[in-house]
């Protein structure tokens, strides 16, 4: 498929200074210097044509001249096509008529021809022969001699992960970006879109090219000097070359890696560790950011017999409307940038906060062990991928526990799979937690008078809480290829909601119902003025940072006059139903079974406060939920239509 480009030249131009670092306490004390990288990066580029020795063999008179490239041992013994002999007059005539010297057709040059190659010998009047090189090829060699070259694999350029790359999240000017560390790249690169979006300055430089495999050279476009890139606690200040990239926003290459000195790498586990001053820094990759080229074997399995297909990469797209909707007001941008670490990808285990999830079993309960389910091939591959991701992130480990629960994959709306452990058997013998869960209606009643709103969504909220060490074995699960256990709170445990709500209430207790509402991992900040709101947002972000909780920037909204929260639209005018939910109720087809009816009544019941006499209207349908009572009659259909009409009148 795609291979890393072979190193052919070094580079000393285009801002090739070494990066500088800040880490931990060094942030306060200033930047740490580093020596300039040595080795291939500082070798001057020499002309390729001048360094390509060739030897001619054979009898020219017999027309069987053969040419070899002494630099490549793989070519020894491989004979090139025979020479075509032309007189000087014939050469000039072909050039005047625009004919290809290989196939005699018009419209392209010899270097662009796809036909079998012939080398051209010009036969002089005295019988001597000289090889003719097309003027276009001569110019290419000259350009190579005067152009500095940076190198980058095509895989990295389009964002595909290779065995010796690491992908992780970082920030530049407070904006979260995807960073790839690639030892196959000679320099640091940054996406042109990021340069434009963040307003980075690209300084014009002497001409240089970015060389990928296959000899493809992309023209360089200046250099961004002293770009400050944050990787968690590590701050790197280094030059970056702007380039059109794929799913990676920035690439750290040998230019940066060479400045680190001794470094420990575990490419399989996506871990890099090195010293900055007297402090050891460890960087962990995020496997969920990686995409890999499909093998030919896998491709053929995916295609139907005699079918056709293309390999494409899907990236997240955002419309202009969505971008405007998510735009952050300028007055809040500074506060968000100040707490950029809150929006990073969590790495490793969460800290011990004094609130860990406990699994207390009923007296006399035996270890629960349920055999794993059978999975189709596509799900087995997905399970292996997700387990590998969690192992690399450190949130699960291999287990020898007597407990075991099976795993389910549940399809999300976007087509991806959600990893769920079926803890029903374990939950049956678990002592319940009676911690109160807030009532949504009561929460929304607190919003009277508020006109400015911000919404925060925590990133993988459950996984930000540890399981008590003695209860870790009880979380064990089995797949078709292994036995593992969770070190963080997994989804599906009976008391998980209570544990999470308890932690959030303890964190925000002094601010609850004053300017903060918390419903599990959904946080709403509400204020009566913009000045108040600025202070409130700062307090909430500071609280999250103090407790090392992380938010998902893509799902957060700031400084809105209207926001969707818990299925309602909240604004200064009050609380209304979500229009999309109202449309879903109105368009709901007549239920054909108890499950469909229960879904309809569950959705309408969520908005029952907006419909006077909801219980009386829905009572005939509720009776059909009883065992063996479902029968869709004309009376049921009439009630169904009446309830839909009532739901169409709710404010939205």
From TrEMBL:
Residues 1-80 are annotated as: Disordered. Pfam families: RVP_2, RVT_1. InterPro entries: DNA/RNA_pol_sf, Peptidase_aspartic_dom_sf, Rev_trsase/Diguanyl_cyclase, RNA-dir_DNA_polymerase, RT_dom, Znf_CCHC. Residues 51-65 have a biased composition (Low complexity). One of its GO terms (biological process) is proteolysis. The keyword Cell cycle does not apply. One of its GO terms (molecular function) is RNA-directed DNA polymerase activity. The keyword Cell division does not apply. Keywords: Endonuclease, Hydrolase, Metal-binding, Nuclease, Nucleotidyltransferase, Protease, RNA-directed DNA polymerase, Transferase, Zinc, Zinc-finger. It comes from the Eukaryota. CDD domains: retropepsin_like, RT_LTR. PROSITE patterns: RT_POL (PS50878), ZF_CCHC (PS50158). Residues 100-115 form the CCHC-type domain. Residues 391-570 form the Reverse transcriptase domain. This is Reverse transcriptase domain-containing protein.
């Amino acid at each position: 498929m795609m291979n890393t480009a072979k190193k052919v030249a070094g580079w000393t131009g285009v801002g090739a200074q070494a990066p500088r670092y800040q880490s931990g306490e060094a942030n306060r004390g200033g930047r740490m210097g580093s020596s300039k990288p040595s080795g291939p990066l500082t070798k001057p580029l020499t002309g390729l044509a001048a360094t390509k020795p060739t030897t001619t063999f054979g009898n020219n008179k017999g027309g069987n001249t053969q040419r070899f490239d002494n630099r490549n041992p793989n070519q020894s013994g491989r004979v090139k096509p025979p020479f075509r002999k032309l007189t000087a007059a014939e050469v000039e005539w072909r050039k005047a008529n625009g004919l290809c010297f290989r196939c005699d057709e018009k419209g392209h040059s010899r270097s662009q021809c796809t036909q079998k190659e012939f080398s051209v010998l010009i036969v002089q009047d005295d019988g001597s022969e000289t090889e003719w090189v097309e003027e276009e090829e001569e110019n290419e060699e000259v350009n190579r001699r005067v152009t500095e070259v940076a190198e980058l694999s095509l895989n990295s350029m389009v964002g595909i992960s290779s065995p010796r790359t690491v992908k992780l999240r970082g920030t530049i000017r407070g904006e979260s970006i995807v960073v790839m560390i690639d030892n196959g790249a000679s320099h640091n690169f940054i996406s042109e879109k990021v340069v434009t979006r963040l307003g980075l300055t690209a300084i014009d430089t002497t001409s240089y090219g970015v060389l990928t495999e296959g000899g493809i050279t992309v023209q360089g476009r200046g250099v961004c000097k002293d770009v400050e890139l944050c990787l968690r606690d590590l701050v790197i200040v280094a030059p970056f070359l702007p380039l059109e990239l794929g799913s990676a926003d920035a690439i750290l290459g040998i230019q940066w890696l060479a400045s680190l000195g001794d470094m420990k790498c575990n490419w399989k586990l996506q871990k890099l560790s090195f010293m900055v001053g007297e402090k050891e820094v460890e960087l962990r990759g995020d496997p969920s950011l990686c995409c890999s080229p499909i093998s030919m074997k896998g491709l053929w399995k995916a295609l139907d017999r005699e079918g056709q297909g293309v390999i494409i990469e899907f990236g997240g797209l955002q419309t202009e409307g969505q971008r405007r909707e998510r735009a952050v007001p300028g007055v809040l941008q500074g506060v968000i940038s100040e707490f950029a670490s809150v929006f990073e990808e969590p790495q490793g285990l969460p800290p011990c906060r004094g609130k860990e999830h406990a699994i207390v079993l009923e007296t006399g309960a035996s270890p629960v062990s349920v055999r794993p389910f059978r999975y189709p091939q596509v799900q087995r591959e997905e399970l292996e991928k997700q387990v590998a991701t969690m192992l690399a992130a450190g949130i699960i480990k291999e287990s020898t526990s007597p407990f075991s629960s099976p795993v389910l994959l549940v399809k999300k709306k976007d087509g991806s799979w959600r990893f769920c452990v079926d803890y029903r058997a374990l939950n049956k013998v678990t002592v319940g937690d009676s911690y109160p869960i807030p009532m949504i209606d009561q929460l929304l009643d607190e919003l009277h008078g508020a006109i400015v709103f911000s919404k925060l969504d925590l990133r993988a909220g459950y996984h930000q809480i540890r399981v008590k060490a003695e209860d870790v074995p009880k979380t064990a699960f089995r797949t078709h290829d292994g036995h593992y256990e969770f070190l963080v709170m997994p989804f599906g445990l009976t008391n998980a909601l209570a544990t999470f709500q308890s932690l959030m209430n303890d964190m925000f207790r002094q601010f609850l119902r004053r300017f903060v509402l918390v419903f599990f991992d959904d946080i709403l900040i509400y204020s009566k003025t913009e000045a108040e709101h600025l202070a409130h947002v700062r307090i909430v972000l500071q609280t999250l940072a103090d407790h090392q909780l992380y938010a998902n920037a893509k799902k957060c909204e700031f400084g809105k006059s209207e926001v969707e929260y818990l299925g309602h639209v909240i604004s200064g005018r009050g609380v209304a139903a979500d229009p999309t939910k109202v449309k879903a109720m109105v368009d709901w087809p007549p239920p054909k079974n108890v499950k469909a009816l229960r879904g309809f009544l569950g959705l309408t019941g969520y908005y029952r406060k907006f419909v006077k006499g909801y219980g009386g209207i829905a009572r005939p349908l509720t009776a059909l939920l009883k065992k063996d009572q479902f029968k869709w009659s004309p009376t049921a259909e009439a009630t169904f239509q009446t309830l839909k009409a009532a739901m169409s009148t709710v404010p939205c």
